[in-house]
Amino acid sequence: MSKPRSGPKTKPLTYEQALAALPAAQAALSAAVTEHSPEYMLAMDHLRQLYDAMAREAAQRELARRRYNELVSIVNKGTGDDKKVIASRLTDDPSVTKGLLEAVANGEVQTKHQERKFTPHNMVILIGGLARVKARTEAQTLAAIRYGNLFDRAQIGGARATDYEQVKVDTSGPKQDQISGAQDDARRELTNARKALGTRSAGIVDMVVIGGASIRKLAAKLEYGESGKARRKAEADLLAAVEELVVFFKLDPPAKTRPHRWSDGSKVEIVRDEDGNPVQTEEAA
Fold first, then answer.
1. What is the H or E stretch that residue 119 is in?
2. Based on the structure, what is the number of domains in the chain?
3. With a threshold of 0.70, does the pTM exceed it?
4. Are residues 194 and 112 both part of a single domain?
5. d(CA 51, CA 53)
6. Domain of life of the organism in this record (predicted)?
7. Alpha helix locations (H) across 106-177?
């Protein structure tokens, strides 16, 4: 391979030559640094305009985003009947199965799992308009949740289509699956609950807990009016109806019994004379 040809060799500058050429080189460098060409200045102007436009658009996007988030938060909170009521309640963890809990209990899995955990819920979905009644008790909340679950499970399923051209055969015997059996149980319990409530109370519970109606709508439905007194009366009727569900589902907390005292035993009957003075009996003597 041939070697590349080198350029003509030049003699190195002497100190005197470098000292003489240094002022001109310094002036050329200063001019190159401080002075720009017209094309460069025009490009810089365009770049500044581009940055200004990008900053304005970014500011408009940020303002639009803040405005949108503000409106969404207000709409999500809702007003009146569609207002959300968020509360944390213990809920079964779907990721924890019965087999996993048994494995943890048997020592096969060395980990900690909680079967239930506190989870935020929209109470309006669980108990309808009762969620906005602050005077409700925990037992009434549980009764309303159970009633709503019965109502939902009772709606699942339906009658099967019948082909009358098929040959009739003996279909006696057990043929129900577990799902349809659970549906029948839910319908039966729901029917019994409505019988225990009665027509009026069942209508109130269905309207508020299932239909999600507000106390204002309930007061109007019961023809109580639209005043505050009418709403309080309708709220009292609703709580009384839900309390009947508490009794039906046996969700009442156990009554606190008074501790037995030594003085609770039988006492000697005091016999008095005609003037009201105690008379000493033979047993006491």
1. strand 116-122
2. 2
3. no
4. yes
5. 5
6. Bacteria
7. 123-127, 138-155
